[in-house]
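Researcher: Here's my situation. A collaborator sent me these components and asked whether they could plausibly form a single complex. I don't have experimental data yet, so a predicted model of the whole assembly would be a useful starting point for our discussion.
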Amino acid sequence: MRHLIDITDLSQDEIGGLLQASEDIAARPGDYADACRHQRLATLFFEPSTRTRLSFEAAMQALGGSVLGFSTSDASSTAKGESVSDTVQTVSCYADIIAMRHHKEGAPLLASIRAQVPVINAGDGGHAHPTQTLTDLLTIYREKGRLDDLVIGLCGDLKFGRTVHSLIAAMVPYANVSFVLVSPRELRVPDYIREMLTQAGSSFIETEDLEGNLGQMDVLYMTRVQRERFFNEADYVRLKDRFILDMDKLEYGRDDLSILHPLPRVNEISVAVDSDPRATYFKQVKNGMIVRQALILKLLGEAS
Amino acid sequence: MKLYYLLGLDKLDSTIAIIKNVESKKYGRKDIIKVDELIDLNVDALGYIDPRITVNIVQNAQLKEKLRLELPQTLRNIVRCKNPRCITSVETTVDQVFRLSDAEQRLYRCVYCEVAPDREGE
């Protein structure tokens, strides 16, 4: 039984296969309209989501399947104290595949151990978000035509930003990829990410200077400073506005820069940037649905 | 003495000898715990505490077996994850599992949240 809990569960070949499948789905959506007829996706979302949950549901419906589930833990027996283990074993009786988002890190991994169907991690705490990474990889691939030989800038909350952790893990194996990690000192990447970069021999710098480093980037991945990951409101307020991308800062970026953001955005990218041709974050949203279609097909195909 | 309690030796009725600061060719000095009965040993726990530990099993005054320990690849229910964000903090019946992340640093990480066992979330 295959699951997708962390982006490293997929080999580079498999990621390449998913990107190719995504291109085919984008070009010929009608060919896939009945691919998952009579199959059900359960979306078990224990914490809020707009894009990811709707993206999974739209993806399954675009494949001819149906969806069931819940969008907050209050709407399930978790409110009565039911464990993730029991929830997943129950839902395995109703659905062919599960997409789970949970505020506790490692919950989808636990679910994959207990479930009788494939489990997809739709985000676990501040830890990982592998389908966002597939979305990000597809977007980079479509904008740049490649995943190697790139300078990737990541800016904002690199400590609690699970999309950042997953994207770095995914890009490390590609040749000649270097990273510029821009963040306040308090929000640097966790130690295990730094260890991963060092052990892989990847080139990276950690800096608080966005303008000074923008000119060398092929991709700029902006992130939101996440209020819900802070235990202390005062720390959040102090840090949240430090790294905002606006048209003035964008002057330092090259014409072929691609600006990505996993969304939702608060104020870290000014609205004026949206109409700049380098802004790619709304194209990312569409790519998210397509790549989830490819992923659902792959995992259901292997399960059967 | 950490080992003495970890192995539950305080609860045994058999004869136990603790010998400290014995000369060692390899390490200069070593401590020895001698237990006068065969006990179940969690070699992973011992290897985690110190992979330099050696276990000699002696029967009828003859050395029957010598176990040289290694740093285990996996720890199961030996240490607990202290990260309050980890799923194991709320689902307490789940096994506590850590994988060896860096042998040189003797660094282990929780398989669920990837935090080290002596950290409360990085």
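Model: Some features of this prediction you could bring to your collaborator: The interface with chain B takes residues 83-85, 102-107, 109-110, 124-127, 159, 190-192, 195, 199 of chain A (CB under 8 Å). Chain A has a mean pLDDT of 91.
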